[in-house]
TrEMBL record:
InterPro entries: NAD(P)-bd_dom_sf (IPR036291), SDR_fam (IPR002347). This is Short-chain dehydrogenase. It comes from the Bacteria. It comes from Rugosimonospora africana.
């Protein structure tokens, strides 16, 4: 990806950070955006920053550029894209990874028992941000044929259409992200661009590791609390999935589809950082949902 430019919207931590890093490892110039900077934390109150992400991109071999952006503010997104155009004159990859809804989700309660304002805020963060960013970024992306748009969510369309995600707001958010990729695939096809929805599996994000009281180095200790955690994956796995898509000259074959990091690993032969290829969503359907004992044989 030398000479190519990527924008990862929502690159502060988790999947977004490693998507940016892995695109950088492939040689790209990566604009890493988010609301958490070294001088200001977002409402999530976490320590990770976009500057750290940009440094990791550069250390991986790319060029990382951190830009503070609230993707709910059209003027800020417009300014971001104008900056990318002024500095690079092109955009080859757009990754819509903005989320920020973890602390806003109320689980396992019907809508009438859920607080309304946090739920609506969740939807705005998960959906409106992606639409606003695409509105401003896609005209630059389609200036050259071959562009790629990735919508990052949770669960493939095939899984989400059959399984309620335990909160109406969360369910709608994750369904909508996949549908956006389908919509973009139709709108971009005439311009030679590709849109794909990509989901990680059980992501060992910073927050998830803290929840289990482990680190990336000893994450397997968490399987004593939940044996199914043996199927979890590092954020680098989905980052490698999207980097593989970005360098595939035949990526148009994925246009409009909803796929997982595990599925893409089978096609592109990359692995997670431990050398395995976890296929979480197949495992979820065949082992977890039927209530079978944890057994990763044949799935990792």
């Amino acid at each position: 990806m030398r000479g190519k430019v990527a924008l990862v919207a929502g690159a502060t931590r988790g999947a977004g950070r490693q998507i940016a890093v892995q695109l950088g490892a492939a040689g790209a110039t990566v604009y890493a955006t988010g609301r958490s900077t070294r001088g200001h934390r977002s409402e999530m109150g976490r320590p990770e920053t976009i500057e750290e992400t940009a440094d990791l991109v550069t250390a991986a071999g790319g060029t990382g550029i951190a830009v503070p952006v609230d993707h709910l503010v059209p003027e800020q997104v417009d300014g971001l894209v104008r900056r990318v155009d002024d500095e690079q004159g092109r955009l080859d990859v757009l990754v819509n990874d903005v989320w920020g809804g973890d602390l806003l989700t109320t689980w396992h309660k019907p809508v009438w028992e859920q607080p309304l304002e946090p739920g609506l805020r969740l939807l705005r963060l998960a959906i409106d941000t992606h639409i606003i960013t695409s509105h401003f970024a896609m005209p630059l992306l389609i200036r050259r044929p071959g562009g790629l748009v990735v919508e990052v969510g949770d669960g493939t369309t095939a899984y989400n259409e059959k399984n309620y995600r335990s909160s109406v707001f969360y369910d709608l958010a994750k369904w909508s992200v996949n549908r956006l990729a389908f919509a973009w695939s139709s709108e971009l096809a005439a311009h030679g661009a590709t849109a794909v929805a990509v989901t990680p599996g059980w992501l060992r994000s910073e927050m998830m590791l803290e929840q289990f009281g482990v680190t990336e180095e000893n994450w397997r200790d968490a399987t004593s609390a939940d044996p199914h955690f043996a199927m979890s994956e590092s954020p680098a796995y989905v980052g490698r999935a999207i980097a593989a898509l970005a360098v595939d000259p035949d990526r148009a074959r994925w246009n409009g589809r909803s796929v997982s990091s595990g599925e893409l690993a089978q096609t592109y032969s990359f692995t997670d950082i431990d050398g395995s290829r976890p296929d979480l969503w197949r495992y979820w359907v065949e082992v977890y949902d039927p209530g079978k004992p944890a057994d990763v044989t044949g799935y990792r």
